[in-house]
């Protein structure tokens, strides 16, 4: 799931504009990505980097 969102954040700006949406600001995308470090597996390590 996180890989999909990462892909969308990297590639979705053009699609958003075509659909008359505003792309997410880069700073917001960065904050969301940083929050993914809190998603950890049973070993205590982040599940996505």
Radius of gyration: 13 Å
Largest sheet: none
Count of extended strands:
0
Strand fraction equals under 5%
Overall pLDDT metric: 95
**First-residue to last-residue Cα separation:** 12 Å
Order of helices and strands: HHH
Overall structural class, as computed from helix and strand content, comes to mainly alpha
What helical percentage do the residues reach? 40-55%
Question: Which stretches are poorly predicted, pLDDT < 50 over at least 5 residues?
Answer: none
Description:
The chain is 53% helix and 0% strand. It has 3 helices and no strands. It starts with a helix and ends in a 14-residue tail after the last helix.
Topology:
Elements: H1 2-11, H2 13-18, H3 26-35
Features:
single chain; 49 residues; mainly alpha; 3 helices; elongated
What would you say about this model in short?
The protein has 49 residues and is mainly α. It has helices spanning 2-11, 13-18, 26-35. The chain has one domain (2-38).
